[in-house]
Amino acid sequence: MPYKRGDVMLVLFPDSNLRTAKRRPALIVQSDNLATGLPQTIIAMITSNLTRAGHPSRVTLLLNSPDGKQAGILMDSVVMTDNLATVRESEIDRRLGTISDMSAVNRALRNTLGI
């Protein structure tokens, strides 16, 4: 796999109706060595809709912050760990950047999954 946990990728992210999808940034959240034998990856949606911020399952990325610059986002955004998807690796287009400190994302995932 040419990417790793914490990478921000441009992907075809499925809508909740599972019939349509939108190309958008998403964060790779699965373990690097998951090795399921399936050509798929678990991702979290990234949205520029800041009205989605402020929930414990979401992490705000500001464009002008060090994390935002490193993530390769084009505007202030929110990582939504409560909107996860499993996508085929063929639907992942390219790497935009990375989030090197995943501690806030890990806290948000724990909140989302109740672990």
List the helices and strands and how they pair.
Elements: E1 7-14, E2 21-28, E3 40-47, E4 58-61, H1 66-71, E5 77-88, E6 92-98, H2 103-113
Antiparallel strand pairs: 1-2, 1-6, 2-3, 3-5, 4-5
Q: At the third CATH level, what is the topology name?
A: SH3 type barrels
Number of strands: 6
Largest sheet: 6 strands, antiparallel
Query: Over all CA atoms, what is the radius of gyration?
Result: 13 Å
Q: Share of helix among residues?
A: 10-25%
Element string (H = helix, E = strand):
EEEEHEEH
- Give the helix tally: 2
CATH architecture: Roll
The helix-and-strand class reads mainly beta
Number of domains: 1
Question: What strand order characterises the main sheet?
Answer: 4-5-3-2-1-6
**Average residue pLDDT:** 93
